[in-house]
Amino acid sequence: MTATDVALTEEQRLFQGAIRTLCEREVAPRVAAAEAAEVFPRELFAIFGEAGFLCPTFPEDYGGAGADTVSFCLMAEELGRVASGIAGSLVAHSSIGTSAVLAYGTEEQRRRLLPDAVKGRSIFCFAVTEPNVGSDLAAMQTRAVRDGAAYVLDGAKSFITNGGLCTHALVAARTSEKGLSLFVVPRASEGFEVGPKVEKLGNRRSDCVSLRFDGCRVPEENRIGPEGEGFAMLVRALNGGRMVVGARALGVASAAFEASLAYARERRQFGRPIGDFEAIQMKLAQMATRLRAARLLTYDAARVKDAGEDAAMPAAMAKLFSTETAKWVCDEALQIHGAYGYTREFPVERYWRDARLTTIIEGTSEIQQLVIARRLL
């Protein structure tokens, strides 16, 4: 089960082949050690940047590959297949954290910030979630108070991917009673504090920490977009990123399905392979069917976005169905493996742990259903 289930152009197939080769050569050998140490292999940013796979949809003017959203989804899927946690860090840097600068920054900001990000010389995180603020962005408590030609940031952020690795943070903060604004905050800024690593169930190779801003001064030139319009920019950025999360979930689920297929052929019970039993065959048939449906939804949403059309509902559908499918497929994969699936001897326990997060990040499954329903009504 691969993205060949959907029609790809020759350029997209070449992109897919190149990213798969890079993942097999550079990512796969690092997975076991990174999982055991619960540390992201930082050198991968430079490796992927030099290979042209960071921020792949960015224009060549800023060092990007000028690829389309379908290709970005191919990258997320191939990374997710090998290591979802590593995919999380590379994709987070390549999507919301930097894409807001591309979409809403001035030309000076783009020239100053993006070339290093594209090459992996700088690392971005996206600081929105707070200890008491998850889906309800309007309740954000971090504040940015204007002080002359600068803003002073005070507040806390939680569950920030790349927060411990970053050189820059894209921070959402309240600048008025009803308005949010976005700021690029350099890691070296006074008052920028990094908390301890978050101990997670899965995706242990992805860097995740809390951040705190204590009287942190940010020059006005680092505000992205107009003051007070951050909420709308965040919503548009999240809509664009959801199909990429769906593709990443597809990668994890595909790895779990392929492992189950191989195990069903090799594992013998009652004198024959367990794949000969109808109970296992039905599981595999359902897994393959749901994966194909999820893949078609995901790449359809990517094509809608590439066509310049409103992708909010297709993206929400893709994210909802693909991530819930990944959760289900990985659970079935563990069941097929029986007791062995619950051990670290086989990778399906890791797939199961990693897939679970995808139904939560960038809008929970419940939020996706609300997005879809409101569009319908």
How would you characterize this protein structure?
By secondary structure, the chain is an alpha+beta fold. It folds into three domains: 3-122, Acyl-CoA dehydrogenase/oxidase, N-terminal domain (Butyryl-Coa Dehydrogenase, subunit A, domain 1, Orthogonal Bundle), CATH 1.10.540.10; 125-228, Butyryl-CoA Dehydrogenase, subunit A, domain 2, CATH 2.40.110; 231-376, Butyryl-CoA Dehydrogenase, subunit A, domain 3 (Up-down Bundle), CATH 1.20.140.10. The protein has helices spanning 10-27, 31-37, 43-51, 69-82, 84-104, 107-119, 230-266, 278-306, 312-337, 348-356, 365-376, and strands at 124-127, 143-147, 150-161, 168-174, 180-186, 192-197, 208-219, 223-224, 268-269, 272-273. It has a four-stranded mixed sheet with strand order 1-4-5-8, covered by helices on one side. Strand 9 (268-269) and strand 10 form a beta hairpin. The two termini are 35 Å apart.
Give the structural class: alpha+beta
| The number of domains | 3
Question: What is the fold-level CATH name, i.e. the topology of the largest domain?
Answer: Butyryl-CoA Dehydrogenase, subunit A, domain 3
Distance between the termini: 35 Å
Number of helices: 11
How many DSSP-defined strands?
10
Major sheet: arrangement of strands? 1-4-5-8
Indicate the low-confidence ranges by residue numbers: none
Q: What is the string of SSEs from the N terminus onward?
A: HHHHHHEEEEEEEEHEEHHHH
- Please report which band the strand proportion falls in: under 5%, 5-15%, 15-25%, 25-35%, 35-45% or over 45%: 15-25%
Using the alpha-carbon principal axes, give the shape: globular
Biggest sheet overview: 4 strands, mixed
CATH C-level class of the largest domain: Mainly Alpha
Fraction of helical residues? 40-55%
